[in-house]
Amino acid sequence: MTLGRILHLQRLSTEDGPGIRTTVFFKGCPLRCAWCHNPESISPKPQTQWFAVRCIGCNTCLEACPNGCLSRGADGLHIDRQRCEGCGKCAQVCPAGALELLGRTVSSEELLRELLKDRAYYEASGGGATLSGGEPTLQPDFAEALLRGLKEHGISTALDTCGLCSEQTLDRLLPYTDLVLFDIKLLDPAAHRRFTGASNERILSNLLHILDFIRRAERPPALWIRTPLIPAATDSDENLRAIGSYLAEHLDGAISRWELCAFNNLCRDQYTRLGLEWDYAGLPLMTAEELARCEQVARSSGLRPDLVLATGATRAPQLVESES
What we know:
Number of domains: 2
Low-confidence stretches: 319-324
CATH class of the largest domain: Alpha Beta
Shape: globular
Order of helices and strands: EEEHEEHEEHHEHEHEHHEHEHHE
Strand order of the largest sheet: 7-1-2-8-9-10-11-12-13
CATH architecture of the largest domain: Alpha-Beta Barrel
Strand content: 15-25%
Structural class: alpha/beta
Distance between the termini: 73 Å
């Protein structure tokens, strides 16, 4: 039995590959992106989040915590996250559902059975299952067992990865993968380290390793490149041109799509529930004009223009009262 730790499943997803998909969010990530939209996926350990709007102040959780991690102040519940072991006992006794444990351990067999329940959606739409995160490659045994099981049942598979892993891990997962969603955030090594906490040297090397696999494989996976558009970080003309030029030079003919993912701020509350600060909390969504500019820059960067696709919600234009 192969065990792994996941956050949750997102059913009826249309953003993580073609068709209707079920996305498995893994727990744990090797990067620390300043703009991370899934902060609950960074730590590989279970974490407790608190919903202030649900809390009735009964203090049942304080009594249940075996490590004395919880306390209450004038501004609500406080969780000592240095001492919290993520046992989930506080969430189990909370009558209002104000506490929730993030991260559960499941077997690949159990999860596979759950994913197969959505087979009708996959078959009707040309969809499948996507392994995302967090970072699936941090749990190679679990990811491999799950991908292999899906393929044995004829389910299309996708691997959504930041690319920071070993070549050996990729060699284990790629034979069971129909689509690779590969993130390239920043091409400049210093900027990449500043914003993500790690160099992009291994990431770019792994991208070329995937290219080699695609060229050798009898049934190669499709390859989509994804770049998050983060204000004052990744959305600059310089960065987009550098990425496009790199893709055109090194991966021409192997890429099916370069997707530009518009910045979103929907995760603000998630940071609050985890007791974390987020530098991007005050930033609004991009405007349609800003997103179109990024798309145009990418299309003129050297890669085939038809491969570039900008996606994501944009900010509604301000309504201006007409003068009369």
